[in-house]
Amino acid sequence: MKIICVGRNYAAHAEELNNPIPQTPLLFLKPDTAQLLDGFPLYYPDFTKDLHYEAEILLKICKNGKHIAPQFASEYYNEVSIGIDFTARDVQNRCKEKGHPWEIAKAWNHSAAIGQFIPLKEAQNKNGVIDFSLTKNEEVVQQGVSSDMLTNFDELITYISKYFMLLRGDVIFTGTPKGVGSVQIGDQLKGFIGTQQLLSCAIK
User: Fold this and answer.
1) Can you give the pLDDT at residue 14?
2) Which stretches make up the Fumarylacetoacetase-like C-terminal domain (predicted)?
3) CB 196 within 8 A of CB 182
4) H-helix or E-strand spanning residue 95
């Protein structure tokens, strides 16, 4: 499986980091070794002093496809979850300053926390919108709604599949809302869709 991530898909998040809003989706990849499943701890990497959480809605691909037309995009996912794109912010900033790729800031071992997946319909409210949130030490630090995304789920499927063949089991991190912040050893993170907790991760 591969992990495909979407950057700056919420305008308020791009603004909080003083980044321009992209005209097309900004994509990057994480290897399968980046997976960190629900309930497993994350050991604070020794190459960063500024580790950040970025909570996101995840899509799980349910069948193979490429060059997927918009009218068929919704057929390629039927489960969602919440995840955390852990980012070594200081490393990323140094890479950006030099014009270098920043995989070492985002694609390292266990940098992609993945919650338990639930059916899409179970995650949506009566308006078809997904509410999600992240707590740190029992306090809400991020909240978002899927309707605020600059590029919605179906549009992402169509765009991504132009460049990467989607395979069953692939996971898409669909972008983070505003409110990203740092974590320290001893912190406990929990991710929710609606009121349902789907992810727990202790920082050690």
Assistant:
1) 62
2) 2-189
3) no
4) helix 89-98
